[in-house]
Amino acid sequence: xxxxxxxxxxxxxxxxxxxxxxxxxxxxxxxxxxxxxxxxxxxxxxxxxxxxxxxxxxxxxxxxxxxxxxxxxxxxxxxxxxxxxxxxxxxxxxxxxxxxxxxxxxxxxxxxxxxxxxxxxxxxxxxxxxxxxxxxxxxxxxxxxxxxxxxxxxxxxxxxxxxxxxxxxxxxxxxxxxxxxxxxxxxxxxxxxxxxxxxxxxxxxxxxxxxxxxxxxxxxxxxxxxxxxxxxxxxxxxxxxxxxxxxxxxxxxxxxxxxxxxxxxxxxxxxxxxxxxxxxxxxxxxxxxxxxxxxxxxxxxxxxxxxxxxxxxxxxxxxxxxxxxxxxxxxxxxxxxxxxxxxxxxxxxxxxxxxxxxxxxxxxxxxxxxxxxxxxxxxxxxxxxxxxxxxxxxxxxxxxxxxxxxxxxxxxxxxxxxxxxxxxxxxxxxxxxxxxxxxxxxxxxxxxxxxxxxxxxxxxxxxxxxxxxxxxxxxxxxxxxxxxxxxxxxxxxxxxxxxxxxxxxxxxxxxxxxx
Amino acid sequence: xxxxxxxxxxxxxxxxxxxxxxxxxxxxxxxxxxxxxxxxxxxxxxxxxxxxxxxxxxxxxxxxxxxxxxxxxxxxxxxxxxxxxxxxxxxxxxxxxxxxxxxxxxxxxxxxxxxxxxxxxxxxxxxxxxxxxxxxxxxxxxxxxxxxxxxxxxxxxxxxxxxxxxxxxxxxxxxxxxxxxxxxxxxxxxxxxxxxxxxxxxxxxxxxxxxxxxxxxxxxxxxxxxxxxxxxxxxxxxxxxxxxxxxxxxxxxxxxxxxxxxxxxxxxxxxxxxxxxxxxxxxxxxxxxxxxxxxxxxxxxxxxxxxxxxxxxxxxxxxxxxxxxxxxxxxxxxxxxxxxxxxxxxxxxxxxxxxxxxxxxxxxxxxxxxxxxxxxxxxxxxxxxxxxxxxxxxxxxxxxxxxxxxxxxxxxxxxxxxxxxxxxxx
Lengths: 515, 426
Hints:
Oligomer: heterodimer
Distance between the termini of chain B: 37 Å
Number of strands of chain A: 22
Radius of gyration of chain A: 24 Å
Helix content of chain B: 55-70%
Number of helices of chain A: 17
Largest sheet of chain B: 2 strands, antiparallel
Strand order of the largest sheet of chain B: 1-2
Strand content of chain B: under 5%
Radius of gyration of chain B: 22 Å
Mean pLDDT of chain A: 87
Strand order of the largest sheet of chain A: 6-9-10-3-11-12
Low-confidence stretches of chain B: 10-15, 398-426
Structural class of chain A: alpha/beta
Largest sheet of chain A: 6 strands, mixed
Strand content of chain A: 25-35%
Mean pLDDT of chain B: 83
Helix content of chain A: 25-40%
Distance between the termini of chain A: 67 Å
Low-confidence stretches of chain A: none
Number of strands of chain B: 2
């Protein structure tokens, strides 16, 4: 029964939650030393499967068997799976921002004698492990001071410290820019060559295609198929077909831009960092948007795109120093979020769970939450029936998959959560909608639908700004793309002259055109 | 059986806090040999605890918004002595004195609200400071003396409805009130059903509605009849009526108005609320100021009942109010809780207090038991949530039946969703 070439076999795994069958008879086999990718739409069950494996859902809470290294395993918690050599790195990194890199790396398994920590040894071991992942940082640096890409590497170093044999990475490059993603993938290749087996859950099909040896596709809690990449014939289209159950002709819906006059313009926008006043996060930025136009904003992580957008949106980030805003031909000063919303600007935040949603709310209450006054009487009494009607309306329009509008948003899949957030902003009837990383962590099918929503908004004459770290996405959507580097706008390319190289060049130009 | 589940909003296994309350009442009724449900005792329970329940109304809004208020006892005491002395030294007529007291409460609330909302100091600290400051103020103003209040004023704490109409053995106004409330609830329920049907939302089965209405009406009428049958001259206490009016007003505000929604939004996810245009600072200020005003009212009601204001009034009230709110289903992290739930939590504490007192159990033992009840009630609720089942308390303070899936937020009750457990991947 035990095939030495197989490190892990999960057989007939089923797991249900009240009202939801998350996994149904899933069978999943991983060969020793390979990179095995798991793909599937949001809500398909990928994370749940990994949680069953790693002991987050302990033995007894699921049906089926897990054979690890040929032995039947019954992990009762994460520690049990970790001591067996299975380490899982979650999408939401489990790092403590206020503690240092070294402290984080040894949390739970401190270099200590009789409870007293040996800091010298801790920092030294930390340096050693950091070198293995190619991160050159002082181990005493607090985690909050390094970017997401580096934090991800710290997590991997943490895993290496636990003598990992089977490393599970949940959406490892979701929050990384191109450079950090490439570095991470190289690191994974390196781990593979050292005999460490890796399981990657990812939506980034191009990356999976490049690095995986096998790909298992899961849909609606069931295994659809396992593709053997080494045998050939596997490309992105083939994977999409497996995930969605049909081939997608194109990533982006058809769209004929009908671009009108300039209606929104920013000039000389300068913003200071909220804690470090000497640092300018926006340096004299100027740009404009026309009616019916989709304008993209490209830049490396930390370039200042989100900062610029949040500052425009009611000065909700940083200390505003100077700059003018002209909306519909009139200069405006929108120094609060409510003023911005009233003026017709909407902002779909980068991280929907942290900044976009109250996870205690239902689809219905979220849909109307950005402009309650629209459905309230003058005394402030909310018209619950108007609320229901509006929520139903948007649910149908955006094709949000939810049992009803009374359903809690926290239980929806990422793609559908994002649709509810979009519904929230569309309800405010914006003239200009800013979307920050709108398709992050969302599967291919839902992305297509969200692109469609954005395009329809543009077609109705509104302006759309899209901030994204996925260059192909920007190139497919935008009519014009601005590039930002270190807080300054370095260029603007029309879609006909934009490509990944020209964009990347401008994204890395530190000598800004406007200083 | 299915329909029965729907009446209670879920599994028949989970009756939760209302069941606990009923069970507690029945238990004490048996244990005290029938003393608990005697008319005078029921009236006593309301009168003796109305002020804590008033505090709980303000406290639940503060906790929903993500804050806490430790100063309410001291504020109540400070306002109590101010009002008592104002009546005595300035000969204020008692209705004016009440307004004066609310005014003082508003000022104190504005002071605390300012520090919390606009300077950004955690409410815990601001109100801890307030607890000290206003206790001291009470003792400074009153020179630690007890100051009596006149009879007119005493009515808001110890007063009853007048005897009106034909000479039945009951207080007629109380009975009428009971019928009026039941009529309003029935009317409201059917109007909601009609509106739901009009827009195409799912309407619960008529049998379920009738069953639930039947139970609620029976309970209200029984309680009102009981209180109407007390000693001649007694009725549903005025303090109970004040409380009921506040419950209706605040219940409405918290579930049906923009302000109410904003309070839940600030507590549920402050940053998301800010980025959705909610004026979070204004909301913080508002809930703090409102709390202090209600504390002022509670203080006055207590002084009215005790017929005088003393230097040790209000000690420990904040803990009783906070306990009531948490037993009633609020979450420490904010964003969850209901006015009605807090009333149930408060009543659980009140019945417990009363029953133990009737049995002659000393204050020491009572304290221990109350503490344990708080701990176990909330622990049970937390356990239920972690098992994937929704908050029982939240369930039972809802107006609509559960969907196929648990934790469906509705108007009357906000649930802590089962997100930690059932959340699908993002």
